């Protein structure tokens, strides 16, 4: 479970919390009733009382009294109905779309990450597509201008086919303008009527790009993920430009920033962010998932101890 889901944590039946209070009062009253030394404590000191009495095993760490508390807590968890996510509707299909915007400008041809930043980005995209399966995805390429390479489709093989040929040579305008992606992404996501994700894969951004992305994503329900491709520090004496982490952080101010890693962890992180993007709808069409039911099996297993000979709790 992603910890961001805990933002929606609540109890479906919080009034059952009173069971803990009532149980505490009942067990305390019974303990006082069964305390045969209660009247002697009023006339004898604690030291003298300890000296003239024989300790029993009532203070054992594993006893019916202590296990009763465990059972009460477990049963209360079941009854209050903890939840942090809604059940998917069986009558609708997930229409949330992912727009992949790939930077194909000249800086992406640098080879600080072998064989090049662009080829590494393409390999990461293919791994992400493999994780997502046939989910709704669109592909946009940009340099000095942005263009739709593949509109929203659930055929990842079509995206793979067009992804292979993308480079700066096919772009009509040279440069690097990630802000040009925003109107295209908005046009693609608007018909879906559900929150989508814009994934921008790049090695840098001009200063004014952050303003455009802040203005759009501060109002839109869609999610922004910026995937940085490249090394933060260029080798000394190298003509390679380093990854512009500061500019990418500014651009991802209203979203999330993920930096490339040599393993699969960055792909997994991006995929988790995409999966957790759907806005929780507080209505009756999507009931909340009661996450307390698995505790029933733990409580049932502990309940078997009451079949043990001599294991009793006197009321």
From TrEMBL:
Ranges for domain VWFA: 97-278
Transmembrane spans: 12-30, 67-84
Coiled-coil positions: none
Classification via Gene3D superfamilies: von Willebrand factor, type A domain (3.40.50.410)
PROSITE patterns: VWFA
Species of the source: Thalassotalea agarivorans
Keyword line: Membrane, Transmembrane, Transmembrane helix
Protein's name in the database: Ca-activated chloride channel family protein
């Amino acid at each position: 479970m992603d910890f961001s889901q805990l933002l929606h944590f609540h109890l479906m039946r919080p009034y059952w919390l009173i069971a803990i209070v009532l149980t505490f009062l009942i067990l305390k009253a019974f303990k006082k009733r069964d305390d045969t030394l209660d009247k002697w404590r009023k006339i004898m000191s604690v030291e003298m009382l300890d000296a003239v009495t024989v300790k029993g095993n009532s203070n054992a760490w594993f006893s019916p009294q202590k296990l009763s508390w465990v059972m009460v807590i477990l049963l209360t968890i079941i009854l209050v109905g903890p939840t942090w996510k809604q059940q998917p509707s069986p009558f609708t299909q997930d229409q949330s779309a992912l727009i992949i915007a790939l930077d194909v400008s000249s800086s992406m041809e640098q080879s600080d990450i072998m064989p090049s930043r662009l080829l590494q980005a393409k390999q990461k995209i293919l791994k992400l597509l493999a994780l997502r399966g046939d989910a709704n995805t669109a592909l946009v390429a940009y340099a000095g201008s942005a263009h739709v390479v593949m509109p929203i489709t659930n055929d990842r093989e079509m995206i793979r086919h067009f992804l292979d040929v993308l480079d700066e040579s096919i772009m009509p305008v040279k440069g690097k303008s990630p802000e040009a992606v925003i109107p295209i992404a908005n046009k693609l996501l608007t018909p879906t009527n559900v929150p989508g994700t814009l994934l921008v894969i790049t090695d840098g951004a001009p200063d004014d790009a952050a303003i455009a992305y802040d203005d759009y994503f501060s109002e839109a329900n869609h999610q922004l993920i910026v995937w940085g491709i490249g090394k933060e520090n260029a080798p000394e004496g190298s003509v390679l430009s380093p990854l512009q982490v500061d500019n990418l952080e500014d651009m991802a101010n209203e979203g999330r920033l993920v930096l490339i890693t040599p393993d699969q962890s960055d792909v997994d992180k991006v995929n988790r962010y995409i999966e957790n993007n759907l806005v929780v709808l507080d209505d009756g069409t999507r009931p909340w998932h009661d996450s307390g039911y698995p505790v029933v099996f733990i409580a049932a297993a502990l309940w078997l101890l009451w079949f043990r000979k001599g294991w009793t709790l006197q009321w």
